[in-house]
Amino acid sequence: MKTYQLFALISMLFAGLTAVLAKAGLKNVNADTGLAVRTCFVFVFVWLNVFIFNQIKDFSNLTQKDILLLALSALTTSISWIFYYKAIKMGNVSEVALIDKASILITLLLSFIFLHEQFTWKIILGATLMLSGLLVLTWK
C-alpha cells in the first residue's frame, strides 16, 4: 500500500467518526453554533500539527497564487460545512453523509479538467457505482 493510500484510509476513518460525533454534538444547539465550536477546535489542532512537526518554515514557500487558491478552498469548505451541518441537524446522518460523499463525482470531473489527472476505467467504474448509489438514495 502506498503512503498516500494509507493516509486516505485514515482520513476515511476519521471522517466517518466526524459525522456521527457532530450529529450527537448538535443535540442542544443549532447547526451554525455547533460548526463554529468545531471549527475553533479544528483551527487549534491544525496549528498544533504545524508546530509539532516543524512545518512553520513552509510558509516562506507560499506564493500569492497559492494563498488565493487556498483562500478559495477555505471559502468552498466553509460553504460545504455550513450546509452539511444544517443537513445533519435536520436529517439522518447516514443519508446526508452518503449524499455528501458523492461530491467525489464533482472532484473527479474537476480533477480531469483542471489538473489533467488520468481518466482510467477503474475511476469510471467507481464513479458510475457512486452515481448509481446517489440516485438510489435520492429516488422518491
Query: Could you tell me the number of beta strands?
Result: 0
Rg, nearest Å = 17 Å
How does the helix and strand content classify structurally? Answer: mainly alpha
Number of helices: 6
| N- to C-terminal distance | 40 Å
What amount of the residues lies in strands?
Answer: under 5%
Helix content: over 70%
Largest sheet: none
- What's the domain count? 2
Order of helices and strands: HHHHHH
Point out poorly predicted stretches: none
Which word captures the global form? globular
User: If you average the pLDDT, what whole number results?
Assistant: 93
Task: Note down, in words, how this protein is organized.
The protein is mostly helical and 140 residues long. It folds into two domains: 89 residues, no CATH class; 39 residues, no CATH class. It has six helices and no strands. The radius of gyration is 17 Å and the shape is globular. The termini are far apart.
Short summary of the structure?
The chain is mainly alpha-helical and 140 residues long. It contains six helices and no strands. The protein has helices at 3-25, 31-52, 64-90, 93-101, 103-114, 121-138.
Topology diagram in text:
Elements: H1 3-25, H2 31-52, H3 64-90, H4 93-101, H5 103-114, H6 121-138
